[in-house]
Amino acid sequence: MRAAALLPIIALIALPAATPARAETSATIPVLAPLTGFLALEGASQRNGALLAFRHRPAIRVHSETVDTATSPEQALNAFARVLRGGAPTAVAAPMLGTQMLALLPPAAEAGVPLVTVSGTAEITERGSPWVFRFFPGDDVVKAAQARYVVEEMGRRRVALIHQTTAYGQSGRRHLVANFERLGAEIVFEDALAPTLKDMAPVLTRARAARPDVLVLQLHAEPTARLVRQAARLRLGLPIVAGSAMHQPATAALLEPAELEGVCAESGSSPISGGSAAMERWVADYRARFDTEPDAFALAQYDGVSMVLDAVAAGARSGEEVRARLATDAYEGLAMRYRSDGHGNMAHDAVILCYDGRDRTPRIVRRYRDVLKNG
Amino acid sequence: MNRIAFWFADGIRLPLIFAAGALVAFMLPLEAPYAIRLLTQVAIYALLGLGYQFVFGLAGAFSLAQGAFFGVGAYVAALAALQWDWTGNLTLPAAVVVAVALATIVAVPVLRLSTHYFALATLGIAQVLLLLAIGWIDLTGGSNGLAGIAPLSLLGIALDGWGGMIAAWLLVALVGLALYQVRGSLTGLAFDVMRTDSFAAIAAGVPVERLRFAAFLASAGIAGLAGALQVHAIGVVSPEVLDFDIMVRCLVICVVGGVARTSGAILGAFLVVLAPELFQVLEGYRLLAFGALLLLAILFFPVGIVGSLEALRARWLGATPFTQKLPTLRAPGRSLLATTRPVLSLERVSKHFGGVVALESVTLKVPRGEIFGLIGPNGSGKSTLVNVVTGLVPPDEGRVIVSGEDVTGRPASRVAACGVARTFQTVHLHPDLSVLDNVAVARIGDLPGGLFGTLATIGADRRLRRARAEAVAVLDALGLGGDGLRPAGSLPPGAQRRLELARALARNPELVLLDEPAAGLSEPEQAYLAERLRVLKTRGLAMVIVDHNMGFLLSLADRIACLDQGRLVAIGTPDQVRRDPAVIAAYIGLGRNGHAAAEATR
Prior knowledge:
The complex is a heterodimer of chains A (about 375) and B (about 600).
Chain A: H1 3-14, E1 25-28, E2 31-33, H2 40-55, E3 60-63, E4 66-68, H3 73-83, E5 92-93, H4 98-111, E6 115-117, E7 132-134, H5 139-153, E8 158-164, H6 167-183, E9 186-193, H7 201-209, E10 214-218, H8 221-234, E11 240-242, H9 249-252, E12 263-267, H10 277-290, H11 296-313, H12 319-328, E13 330-332, E14 337-339, E15 350-354, E16 363-368, H13 371-374
Parallel strand pairs in A: 1-3, 2-4, 5-6, 6-7, 8-9, 8-10, 10-11, 11-12
Antiparallel strand pairs in A: 12-15, 13-14, 15-16
Helix pairs in contact in A: 2-11, 3-4, 5-6, 11-12
Chain B: H1 2-10, H2 13-30, H3 32-58, H4 66-84, H5 88-110, H6 115-135, H7 137-140, E1 146-147, E2 153-154, E3 157-158, H8 162-183, H9 186-196, H10 198-203, H11 208-234, E4 236-237, H12 244-257, H13 262-278, H14 286-300, H15 304-317, E5 344-353, E6 356-366, E7 371-375, H16 382-390, E8 397-402, E9 405-406, H17 412-416, E10 420-422, H18 435-440, H19 450-456, H20 462-477, H21 493-506, E11 511-515, H22 523-538, E12 542-546, H23 550-556, E13 559-564, E14 567-572, H24 574-579, H25 581-588, H26 594-600
Parallel strand pairs in B: 7-12, 7-13, 10-11, 11-12
Antiparallel strand pairs in B: 1-4, 2-3, 5-6, 5-8, 8-9, 13-14
Helix pairs in contact in B: 2-3, 2-13, 3-8, 3-11, 3-12, 3-13, 4-5, 4-6, 4-11, 4-12, 5-11, 12-13, 12-15, 13-15, 20-21
């Protein structure tokens, strides 16, 4: 492990013994997250991750305000304007909804505020804005890993692809289709579902009729749980490789362990799967503070905000100075090593995790590092 | 002092707008960029709500497509801005034009429906558009939407921030004044009657379909404009703009603010935009708090905030005095020239309701200047016949000819336009409107202008003033001149029947159909009514009178027809019909006691 990687871990280990020291530096980092609406679960993770990062850096006095952006671009803009009231913040933990991020790019550039997001969808880093930094691997990364796992590790080539009609579903679908085509797998069935659809039996029945050898999902948390449960009841006998929603402990909590047997998912990370003492300590601290299980979004937001705080600790004060550091520095986070690809994409690794049917804790079965470079 | 109080209270809408202005003045210096953004949003939603006031507030049509037209405007502006680099000079008009064009297309099938069927159909339109926005990825960008739309620019002036906010509020002022103008006009009066009692509107000759259509288009166009402003304000468009959430906000704006009120829409917009922002400190619970606030608002202000304030004003200060001095104007009468051509001809008219025969091959003629009585036992088809003639019910067979024109199957408003007026068995009036305005509204057919004509007028509506003046003359003729300013619902039953007749006569008809005009009237009232009807007859008016009161009808009618189980069993002078065995049989039963029956009908 590189020396730089030890820094946050040492800080974390030393945390319980740390006495609240007099803050030497300060930063303003508002948290804009969808706390209401269909992304409330993920938004809460995002907020918690940011708040935990503040807590773990007592040496920096952080002025923060949490603002709900719900799920519309208009409310994200209102929230951004709200946090500009006291002057431009050092950085903003920005919402994870792609359409909200797209709306925030111009005002962030105008105000000179770096946006630290865990949004994986939409082309937010492809619009030439130097002010956006994505700390969750984009769909180009995680969908490549998902498709590669299906084809290369599982040896499946007849894919039934079921995705959501939302931005998350459409963006993931686009990347999955391209990757399966590149890998020589055939999509024998495809359907787009509205998030409100309750009965998954019809779509599963139609999928089975196409005789696939794997079910690939790109659904939000609750629809993923509904479909996995229905698939178990129908005894489809097909392996399921789901999107990142399936890695969330809240999704697994909706299902019985037996229903999860053989179900895999892609993600940027899986904190509850452990993997290191630092990760386990972080998970324990998260549970103690928020009384809930952490997911990859919380961890990615934690890492993103921690990198900003690192920059502040290193002397960056203005938005421009923080932006410059985020754009050029590397950061060894808990989930992975982050470094901008020149467009603000900071996360380049992905994991595949699977449930064994005994409990609701997934095991990481494959880690893909620097997916696009090693593709 | 009292006058000043009345002036202030009467213009309650204006003080509310001033209050909103004060709020703006309070917010702006404190937190300019944030306040500007919020106030721009308020303006956009106020515009959306003002548009919805036309179809929902004025026309009373529960459209659930307003959010969809907002979304259409947003997408049109976004696509035009991105594909062709259009600025607000063209994107705003394009959004309005496309939204109106779409509304025109969907109006044809949808506006035929009413109540919940109309609501469901409009919801269906919204859903189709939402699915198109999600699925037509090449055009709309799918669920990710389109980004990079430039801020509003008009006439070469970039209107970001302050400029955008002022432009949005200017549009609100313009549309708000238009709504205010319509509400205070003869067309507004027609909308009011139409919303309250569609039968009363039809009887008054209000062109219901045309007004609904115009209101639907106006709503759609204004929603499209609001959508275009929205897309320039936030720079992106995604299917959220077509989401039902927008429609819900629109409903909240109008219902909580105040239905059909300009200030209601503005206050409602302030509420839906600012309240969730004020509750931001509650984080995940803010929508719960907002929901509770809305619930309280609906509980404490059941007719909307503005409606409740107006009710309070009325309670504290009394009704606003009607100070307008109206001349008595006699409406230019329809030319009722002597002619041998019948005013009404029914040729083999039949109407069945399932297996029930309501009318069976009825043929009759009513010439000008005749009082034609129609009798028959309950369920014999009398009211159905009146409904068929006035277009409320289309016949299954046969022809209905009014003054030589075949009106078979035409909607009621178009039959009314041919000079047919009516009253109802159960009185249909707008109880809260004044007696004067219940009659004035019936002048709408002879004082054309419509919704868009009204919008072109600035200031007090001359048509309304003229309609009221002409209504005074009609009320005087029926002995209701002294009651003109009373609410119609406060009149005694007999006077209400006369008021219905006054409304029918105000339409200057050639033919009037009176359904049970003497029901519930005292003897002197019956005598007075009969005398007025005889006067009308001398002027050449043809009348068909349905009544069970034989004494009243036999002494009044020139001819009488008797219906039994939908068939015309007798027709002739009152004496002939009174002695007709078929009539006696219809009323009492054949062969049991014909003599007694004959006596009974005397």
